[in-house]
């Protein structure tokens, strides 16, 4: 009973100091990228490339708070780290200004959410009008591909691979074609088995709907 009470008090104490993160107010547009970096924030990563098909280089920014806080995350966990925000900016061909078309406050994993290696952030990149966000862990990796269509950034692909208990497993999912390649096998061997599967999803999900990685169960026990 005493041990149970102690655990309850510890959980209550950690929850007490956790706080829902309130993001700063970003301008709707700006002449330079510095306009989108509030005081006490910095640019952790950036990528440049055409996202909307107008042949003008757009920009994706990852901005991070310099302070460390106990943050309450969408999955109800508490993380001691620095909030990160993903900003996607379209460049106006006429004025040369950047306009915010997407702001996501929770999707990017924070320092402290990487397990044995606390930093899970990989990188962002833009290629062939697709924005890719990747994460890296000690024994696994994950990436998400978003394309601007239907006036939103839609998840068109995701890859999740890792090693657990000496076994390798990888899912490479194309939500546009509804096809997925599943690979698995002994991590120490050269041979793996593979199987193509039909994705049981008929409607694409938007970046806005993806609150955090690994929250969407596409197949039983398969999360992306």
UniProtKB/TrEMBL annotation:
**According to the lineage, what is the superkingdom?**
Bacteria
- Annotated signal peptide: 1-18
Q: Does the keyword Signal apply?
A: yes
Report keywords, A-Z: Signal
This protein's name: VCBS repeat-containing protein
